[in-house]
Amino acid sequence: METEAARYIAKGMIIMSMLGTAIGEGIVAAKAMEAMGRNPEVGDMIFPKMIVAMAICESTAIYALVAFFLI
Amino acid sequence: MNISQFIQFKRDMVPIAPDVVFYLWGFPIANSTLSLIFVSFVVLFVAIFISKNISVDNPGKLQSFLEMIFESLVSQVKSVTGSEYHATRIFALISAVFVFVGFSNYLGLVPGFGSITWNGVSIFRTATSDFNTTFAIAFGCLIVFQLVTIHDFGLKGFFLKYIPLDKLAADIKKGVLSPIYIFVTFLIAVLDIIGEFAKGISASLRLFGNMYAGEVLTSILIGLFAFVLPSFWIVFGLLGSLVQTIVFGSLITVFYMQSAGDPRTRSEKGVILQVINSLKKIFIWKQKQQGI
User: Which residue of A has its CA nearest to B243?
Assistant: First the structure.
């Protein structure tokens, strides 16, 4: 196998990490929406916490992005 | 000239490392550094201008706009810290980070911003799409927060926060101590110290990765279909820039809340607080001398 081909396969595998991140962020958003729907007054309290939790979930995707550009 | 050449423009991929525009006494000045200085000066001059021309009776458009930004920043910091005291204490630093990062992100969306070239190198590049900038901001803030920890808990409390020797001593007194427990405690201490560095690296990588990916995706979309498609991405970039600014600022605030305690509940005063208090006394004394 050529080196270039191996690089492209590795890049494709890195893109697979989108799957997990999307599911994780979706769960965070869904639960936050659920909580806001049940108790709309605490929406302003939940929103920044949701943003921070999403950012932490997203960090794996960012590591994958950095690895994508490094390969 | 066939049709695919007409709708697809070849554009060079943005490199990860910023291009060096010129050397100042052997010190390389990159294009992201230039835009960083540009952003800082614009923010500084707008702040000076608006604070000179501030008015209560007849607020101008710019003043109203800045007041809106200011109020949203205050509510954001208050909602993340959750306490009035901490919000007022850290607001200056956090709002500076917010304004700088937000303005840098939005400047990258201005058309023609990266198109001005000098010696074949574009002289401006989004400051936050360079890892050096975001790393410097995050690490500078983390150093400040370590000093905040020393200020709030004292030097002893600062070391005990990482290596909980006092809890170990209490367990020795109780007589419930096993070698594995000591080993795990020190392992957690090492992990905490690594975690402090990892916080800065992950927060700065997140901002850099998002902004850099935005630039790369713009280049790819222009190469794919140059006419309508990139505009959708740029509209999405308007939202993305704001979200990334809020995320970065919120994370910095959360790091502050993790490292800060309440100094009002402390009995003995820390080293830094003593130094600051003596400096304050000297400052007040000088002002009195000048007044008389």
Answer: A51
